Amino acid sequence: MNLLRIRIHLLIEQLTDDELEKVWSVVYALHCDCYVMKSIQEGKRLQQPWDTLTHEDALQLLIFS
What we know:
Order of helices and strands: HHH
Distance between the termini: 57 Å
Number of helices: 3
C-alpha cells in the first residue's frame, strides 16, 4: 500500500494546478456516481413487491388517512 501511495504522490506532484482540478472533478463525479449506484442496488435488494403502491392506492391512502 505504501508503494502505491508513493507513486500517487509522485504523479500528483507532476500535475499542474489546472490539471489537478480537472482530475479532482472527474474523481469526485465518479465517487458520487458509485455512491448513488450502491444506494440504488441496496434499495433494489431491500425492496419487496408489497412496498410499492399504485397511483390509485396512494390516493386512497392519502384521502382516507
